[in-house]
Amino acid sequence: MSSDPSAVALALIDAWNARELARFLDLLAEDVTWYDPAMPAPPARGRKAVTEFAEAVLRAFPDFRYELRAPLYVAPGGASCVVPWRITATHTATLTPPGYAPTHRRVVLDGLDQLDVQDGKVVHILTCFDVVAAAEQLLDVTLRPREHSVRQRVVMILQRLLAARARRRGRVSA
């Protein structure tokens, strides 16, 4: 097996897109950790937890597909790799856990995975993407308030009240 992080990353994407989870998991260290903001309680620790997350995602989004958006970047020293990706997926079944009902809507997201590789195996994955953009696409709603809107002013007032409360409780220094 190659110890080149970019080769491992490409093999990981290929295995995922082919729905070959056994091959996908074989590219991961036994004690792999994966932090993905879409996980119910990140990070997933170990192959068993990663398997459960991967199976849940593929059940809920059976057409889930990764594409590379740009070249991979291998960090100096060669132990880490950044993968700029675009995913497309349609939410057609319940995402369990936590139990999100299918929306039958398609999502297109850009993001990054940072992979740490040792001895040809992925030991850590950090997935980064805009969770709010994903929710907005899947639910067909606007969650971020428009600039200068009443909703933005309400959110600002709520934030200021919560900030004052946190300061009073000593959680945030003034």
Supply Rg: 19 Å
Mean pLDDT: 93
Number of strands: 7
Name the CATH architecture of the largest domain: Roll
Q: Please trace the helix and strand order, writing H or E for each element.
A: HHEEHEEEEEHH
How is the CATH topology of the largest domain named? Nuclear Transport Factor 2, Chain: A
CATH class of the largest domain: Alpha Beta
Poorly predicted runs? none
End-to-end separation in angstroms reads 53 Å
Instruction: Describe the main β-sheet briefly.
Output: 7 strands, mixed
Q: What is the structural class?
A: alpha+beta
What fraction of residues sit in β-strands?
A: 25-35%
Q: Give the number of domains.
A: 2
What general outline do the C-alpha atoms trace? Answer: globular
The portion of residues assigned to helices is 25-40%
Q: What's the helix count? A: 5
What does this structure look like?
The chain has 174 residues and is α+β, with helices and mostly antiparallel strands. The chain has two domains: 5-143, Nuclear Transport Factor 2, Chain: A (Roll), CATH 3.10.450; 145-174. It is 36% helix and 28% strand. It contains five helices and seven strands; from the N terminus they run H-H-E-E-H-E-E-E-E-E-H-H. Strands 1, 2, 3, 4, 5, 6 and 7 form a seven-stranded mixed β-sheet that branches. The radius of gyration is 19 Å and the shape is globular.
